[in-house]
Structure formats: structure tokens, C-alpha cells
Amino acid sequence: MIHYRSEDEIDLIRESSLLVAKTHAEISALIKPGVTTLQLDKIAEEFIRDNGGVPAFKGYGGFPNTLCASLNEQVVHGIPNDNPLNEGDIISMDCGVVMNGYFGDSAYTYEVGEVSEEVKSLLIRTKESLYKGIEQAVSGNRVGDIGFAIQKYVEQFGYGVVREMVGHGVGENLHEEPQVPNYGQRGRGIILKEGLVIAIEPMINLGTRRIKQLSDGWTIITADKKYSAHFEHTVVVRKGKAEVLSSFVEIEKRLKK
Ligand code: MG
Ligand code: MG
Fold first, then answer.
1. Residue 158 Cα to ligand 1 middle (Å)
2. What is the model's pTM?
3. According to CATH, what is the number of the domain 7-256?
4. For 39, phi and psi rounded to 5 degrees?
5. Any idea which ligand is nearest the CA of 165?
């Protein structure tokens, strides 16, 4: 079932999404060589609870932590651990919050110290592809228009678009209908209507689009072990222009981007 949210419901999803944004901002300045993802996870969990939210991923399907922390060739669903981050790594941090019964979901891929130009470009272009998708999230378009825009943009650089994992509706559940693939055909799929709240989240690989799952039952990695990037916003379909409910503004202020 697809839900179209009232303005009151959208306000609550926005509040949760902005708490996710603030949580990202809290950890963003701490991401440096030597820090562990488990340390960042603890800070994120405390921050969310101190601000009246509940970490949405912790316990979801048995996931053990507040953040999904996916390093380098890890695509998504990495489990925070005690290994220090190293100069030149990239770390995708995915965070969800539930507050007042409504969810917000947003991911950002961070550079650890100086990364290579090739990887820097992957991050810039993956984030850009997210905005290309968001541009299509307007009433009257179809869900395939979003995936088409993302795929068309990133494939010109020779990148691989992960297909097995997709964006999704967000609201009273972390994952709702419809699925929002990062690939597709223009004019295909359900018609987007005002009030539909979706998480758009391109997962883009430097090399092949093929992926594998590690034996921990969670972590997804690229089949060729080349780096992968992930950016995600929670957005609401509007007439003419989508509204982004999560935000990278505070993150990028702290990162001085
Ligand atoms: Mg997410
Ligand atoms: Mg998501």
C-alpha cells in the first residue's frame, strides 16, 4: 500500500529527518584517521536519544547498531567496529531516526583525510546523481523517471549502479512502498503524487555494479572490491519541485565544503 502523507505527517517526518541531519553533523567533524566507527556509532546513538529520538536501525531485522558504516568497497549495511579509519578511506554513514511515530532516513559518504582524485569524483558525482533523482520527484512524473535520471548521469562516467538495493517510501515505517530503484526507464512505474514521501539513495560503484554479501549476513560489498559511494535524502513529492526533508547543510558547514 502506498501512503500519501498529510502536511501534519510530513511535519513529523521532517522533524525526524532533521534529527538525522543533525546527527550526521555531529559525527561529520569527528571522521578522521584513527577514529573507529563504533566510537562514532555511540556518539550518534547518544545524540539521537538526547534529542528525543530513537535510532531506527538498531534492532531492525536484528541489525546491531545505530549507524550503518560501510567502508571503501562496502556498499551498504556495514556494521560499526573497532578498526580505526585510515587516511584515504571513504566511509558511508547511513542513519535513521524514529520520533513521534515517524521515520527519517539519510546517508552521506565521508572522506577520511585525503582521498584520491578518482574517489573524490565518485563522491561528487554520486551526490549529484541524488539531486538529479530528486529533480524528478514531482507530481505527475513516474518513479522510473527518478532511476532513469540517476542511471543516465552516473553511467556516462563508467560507474556501476547497484540494482539489488533501492530507495523506498518512508513514513510510519522505515521501508514502505514504493520501491525507488536507482536505474530504470523514463515513463515507467507508478505515477508520483503530492504527499508521497520517499528515500532516494543511489549506491554507485567505481567499477562493476555487481555486489556480494559478507558472511556477517549484513555487509554488502562490490564484487570487484572497488570503492562504492552512497548518498540518501528523505524527500516529499510536491508540485513542480520536490521538498528535501533531510539536509546536508550542517554536515557541509562542518566539513567546510
Ligand atoms: Mg538510509
Ligand atoms: Mg533508506
1. 25
2. 0.98
3. 3.90.230.10
4. -60, -45
5. 2
